[in-house]
Amino acid sequence: MSIRNEIERRRTFAIISHPDAGKTTLTEKLLLFGGAIHVAGAVKSNKIKKTAASDWMEIEKQRGISVATSVMGFEYAGYKINILDTPGHQDFAEDTYRTLTAVDSVIIVVDAAKGVETQTRKLMNVCRMRKTPVMLFVNKMDREGRDAFDLMDEVEAELGIKLCPLTWPIGMGASFKGVYNLYDRQLELFTPNKQSISESVAIHDIRSAELDALVGEKNTRKLREDMELVEGVYPSFERETYLAGELAPVFFGSALNNFGVKELLNCFVQIAPSPRPVQAQERKVDPYEEAFTGFVFKIHANMDPNHRSCIAFVKVCSGHFERNVNYKHIRHGKLMRFSSPTAFMAQKKETLDEAFAGDIVGLPDTGNFKIGDTLTAGEELHFKGLPSFSPEMFKYIENADPMKSKQMEKGIAQLMDEGVAQIFVNQYNNRKIIGTVGQLQFEVIQYRLLHEYGAQCRWEPISLYKACWIESDSPAELENFKKRKAQYMAKDKEGRDVFLADSGYVLQMAQNDFENIRFHFTSEF
Ligand code: G4P
What we know:
Rossmann fold, Alpha-Beta Plaits, eight-stranded antiparallel sheet, alpha+beta, binds guanosine-5',3'-tetraphosphate, 3 domains
């Protein structure tokens, strides 16, 4: 098969949802269809259960599981599918944001009864920033949920995207009969059975009398009315609008009952994008370019505390990656050769000889890579990652064991390179501040510093509202600001100026007093 064909048949995507909406269950059913696994229950949820006796012990367990399921690749109907897993816990939302930089499309799972929840809204914002095509799967139709039209209204308003149903439910909960597939013009009948696949009947015209016999007179009448409304209210499906990230096709089903999943998958492989061009600082890189390029979007440290060995996850952006070929590590300016790159095929890891744009390659590493690093066949390129967002929680990190200060320094530096959290060094007192999205990240850092580096840290409170990256066209004003706010000035990991505002009021005053300074809540502007 030509390289072009190989790239064209790749579908690399992530499934995102609020915890408990059914992401794990859906992933598992997709893998079952792909023949990548053979029994239900094989995919472990990477959710951190609330009942866990100790959060960090649970995290350690999860890390073992999550490396195996970070990327699940399988073949389906001539397509190569790569599902990128995202952490189930919202405290690790940053990991999810970064994973979204490596996918070409996204499937959002929504619980039919709960509708859109906070985390989904935040993740959708990231998709919007990147114009990532999204598809929706409304799950748990076997339970009493909301009226489909109400739910669609809410999703449109909350996620800020136009919807276009490609399947439509007939009843719900105990009286759920199935869905009408508008894309293929057929009826999918629901039988509540967790393993078997639903029965499909081609119904090219919903006025057909056959419908009455299949789902009953009342349901048929309702379906016909619904269809009229659907056609009147929602735009018809256009692939271009979907690919531009402006229209989200919607599917209804029940992942647990394996219902509606096949329709989703069949339609997905047909309409979802193959690898898309990726923007580098210098230029846009087309996936079909011959020369290999890629970037690191995730680093997974090893469970073995005696060795600092990790796996760097590289998204291949263009061309063809080969084992044992020299590639340029742009930040280090040196050539590197990888003798045992890994492919992720569902739950197995295996050494790969080659990979194509769209694929994810795991590179065993001993600390050479940082999140965002670019690898190329030689060209000087820098892929743009996702900017860092201002963290939501802040704490001073202090060394609790002065004999281990070197280990502590090294540990912090490497964990930050891995993207575990963000660090800001206060320029006034030189104290280090760790910024996170949630409490669990602090626990992870403390635990990993101790177990992987033998260093003990202590947290001290600091009351901060936001970290703002600042810039100005007037160097004099910038200097003046930095002098006036010296106590609140910090540098981020890359040495950029950050203003640490301790309250919304202080920030607003600073914005009023310094009109020529721009305050940003993300690290790239
Ligand atoms: P997540 O990864 O998004 O967090 O969700 P997950 O798939 O773990 O599903 C959350 C819960 O919802 C699970 O139940 C799962 O069995 C259930 N579920 C998933 N899809 C459906 C569906 O279509 N219908 C119904 N009725 N339930 C569904 P649990 O009790 O939390 O876990 P488990 O003990 O069943 O594994």
